[in-house]
Amino acid sequence: MFRKGLIIVVCGPSGVGKGTLLSEVLDSSENMRFSVSATTRAPREGEIEGVDYFFKTHAEFEKMINDDELVEWVKYVDNYYGTPGKPIEASISSGTDIVLDIEVEGAQHIKKKYPDSVLIFIFPPSLEELKKRIEKRGTENVGEIEKRLIRAKVELSYVKKYDYVVINDDKGEAINEIKSIILSEKLKVERNSDLIEKFN
Q: Are 37 and 101 in contact (CB under 8 A)?
């Protein structure tokens, strides 16, 4: 029985630890890949073109918008972020699950376009802890940190629109919770496919 790939959308404020959690989940999961977003922000130390992001100029990104190459895009803290559509279609049609780490507005666009997608929101233990994590990262100045915290409050207001919420207080527990959610959703899809096949 063929199962289409699952689209897993993971969101949460900057500094909440999405990247660390998803790296662990992807490393220990079979038949799953990461959706590489496009962005106009500058690469951070250690980030690799085509692995972490497709780094674009503003002109290049706007051309992708005009050419309808993105399934969602948003402008966030003076930079564009977006998801190329072709890799998503290729993954789900081949039965490979795909994980998206995107902004909250983008997640709602994905859910509208792909109603079976699974939305997971990563919640910080507190705003104070979130601020400490951003400061520890050392990649933003005071003004940028303040912008991210203001933005975080807006993002947290979207939490009711998600299928699941995971609090990233303990990294190991959060990773296990995300894995359990994905496994549960995959089993649900397989059960539904079995039922459809049985009655056809």
A: yes
